Amino acid sequence: MSVDRLNIFPSRANLVLMKQRIVAATRGLNLLKRRRDALEMKLRELVGELDAAREVVDKVMSDAIFSMAKANFLDADMRACELMRMERADIYMRIRNTKVAGLLLPQFHLYVENPSSCPFTGLSRGGEQVEVVRERFQDAVRTLVTLASLEYSVHTLQDGVRQNNMRVNGLEYVVLPRFQNTVNYIRDELEEYEREDFYRLKRSQAKQRKRKEKFAQMLKTKNLPAAALTELSGTGYQSVSPGHQPVSRISSVAMREDFDMNKFITQRQSTSDQTDGGAARGRGSSRDISAILEANEEEQQGAERKGSAFYSAQDQSKHVLPPIKHFLMDTQ
Fold first, then answer.
1. Which of 193, 211, 241 is the last residue of a domain?
2. Where does the secretion signal sit in this chain (predicted)?
């Protein structure tokens, strides 16, 4: 799996959070793609208008320049028109913003006040030609303003499309793969945790089942080995089998849950009575084991009266299981 993922703890809450982030990122990606399509459509439209405006500008400017040359050739007097425009301007430009898919596009508009405000141009030389020059240059100014507005809008749209494409590529090829890798990582870790728990549970169940089978087999056996019989009849708490560390003392209730001593004593008594010369040995073994249980119960009750419910780590090393418990542990 790729290492390009978020540094996040693998938990089910984080898995749900990452899935929500993937859904939000996918929705944003779809919106950005739709916005990109709208901007590109508007850009193609403005590019067509810009090409047409450039062709018109060439024609209008050539007509205005030729009209000026003709007026100069006819020796037209333009001082009267220039003096009448000294006080205030007749042409104004205003800027209005329009939105295209959330992007502001400035548009320039030209306003002409009193287009025929030169009443005295006809009194001077070449007055008619001066009026023609004025009209031609007004048309040229309108065309130039329209061309400037289109060019500015085209550049703004190109920048917007480029930024939008960068966001789309970032979401599609960086953010979403990283989120997906993170989700896959969390899923793999959670599955690994589940497999570990399942394996641990099966191992525990197998050990318990094996322990019960061995214990049942031991109870079914009529004649125990001499070593096992010696182990059962012993009274020393500190004598443990090799390979086992001393463990903390367990209560008689817990020991009876693992080993039904009364049943074991009854079976041993019946087996010993049926065997020649085994009656005395069976009674002796029963008395020894009963004495062990009674001593263990008395010690535990004394510890509970004193209020010591748990043993310290130092005391744990001094107390071990009864011999019968160690015999069961050795059979595992």
1. 193
2. none
Q: Tokens standing for 2?
A: 């790729």
B/e letters for 44-68, b = 16+ CB within 10 Å, e = fewer, are: eebeeebeebeeeeeebbebbeebb
| Main-chain dihedrals φ then ψ at residue 105, nearest 5 degrees | -120, 115
Tell me the two tokens of residue 90.
């007749």
Rounded CA separation 328/169 (Å):
67
Question: How far is it, in rounded angstroms, from Cα 228 to Cα 69?
Answer: 132
> Do both 232 and 118 map to the same domain?
no
d(CA 286, CA 289): 5
Q: What is the DSSP string of 221-283?
A: -SS--HHHHHHHH---SS---TT--------HHHHHHH--HHHHHHHHHHHHHHSTT-HHHHH
Q: What is the pLDDT along the chain (332 residues), one digit of tens a residue?
A: 445 888 989 999 999 999 999 999 999 999 999 999 999 999 999 999 998 888 888 888 888 888 877 777 666 656 656 655 556 667 788 888 888 888 888 888 887 776 555 555 555 555 677 777 778 888 888 889 889 999 999 999 999 999 999 999 999 999 999 999 999 999 999 999 999 988 989 889 888 888 888 877 776 665 555 665 555 555 343 334 444 444 444 444 444 444 455 565 666 566 655 554 544 444 454 555 566 666 666 766 665 555 444 444 444 444 444 444 444 444 44
DSSP 311: -
- State the DSSP string of 278-305: -HHHHHHHHHHHHHHHHHHHHHHHHHHH
Residues 140/61, Cβ–Cβ less than 8 Å: yes
56: which residues sit within 8 A by CB, 6+ positions away?
A: 143
| CB distance 103 to 160 below 8 Å | yes
Does residue 25 sit in the same domain as residue 153?
yes
> Is 246 part of any domain?
yes
